[in-house]
Amino acid sequence: MAMRVTHNVMSNRLLQDLRAGYGRLSETQSQISSGKRIHKPSDDPLAAGQARLRKVDLEAVDRFRAGADQSTSRLQATDTALGHLTDILTRAKELAVQGGNGSLNAIDRLRIADEIDQLANSAKDAVSVRVGDAYIFSGQATTTAPYATATGDAFQGDPAGTIVRDVGPGVAVQLNPSVPTVPSGTATLSGRALLGDGTTANDGRILDAL
């Protein structure tokens, strides 16, 4: 027996097709405007799971990149500061040689002494460099300047412990590596390891030498 197709059946089928078409159109427009094919896991569970894994990977890459950028910035700032300290010590050596000249009078020697004092202050300024908001020669106390006018040559940072940044999967860089100290031994790189703490006489550090 032939089935009769009424106008109501045709209308309902047409409306269903239109609703389905509008739904697909709305989804396509949403994908275009957002740039995302998947808005909720139910859209495509498998692809949603893969996208989550990719997001975790990208977050890790961003974290490693930030660690590498910070490490590079600190290395460059450290290199610049050490260059300034080298210049200061070179000038101090020149002044020491001049001071050893027996023909100099007391006034000449006082002038040399004044310049040496200025070099000591310049050395403290050189290690007061910051990368972002962190003092890189203050050890763990990154918000505290290594030396302050009110405290003279006393080191204000915290040289204990290491500062490490991840730069890759299973790869970490120590931002305050151990350096040799005078007369012997090692210490993590800080203002104290280079200049001294202002409390120990004959510690072989720069401030004591100056």
Note down, in words, how this protein is organized.
There is one protein chain. With 210 residues, the chain is mainly alpha-helical. The chain has five helices and six strands, in the order αααββββββαα. The strands form three sheets. The protein has a two-stranded antiparallel sheet with strand order 1-2. Helix 2 (45-99) packs antiparallel against helix 3 (106-126). The relative contact order is 0.09. The model has no long low-confidence stretch (mean pLDDT 82).
What is the spatial order of strands in the main beta sheet?
Answer: 1-2
Oligomeric state of the chains? Answer: single chain
Please report the total strand number as a whole number.
6
- Give the overall form: rod-shaped
In short:
This protein has 210 residues and is mainly alpha-helical. The chain has helices at residues 7-34, 45-99, 106-126, 191-195, 206-209; strands at 130-131, 134-135, 164-168, 171-174, 178-180, 186-188. It contains 5 helices and 6 strands; from the N terminus they run αααββββββαα.
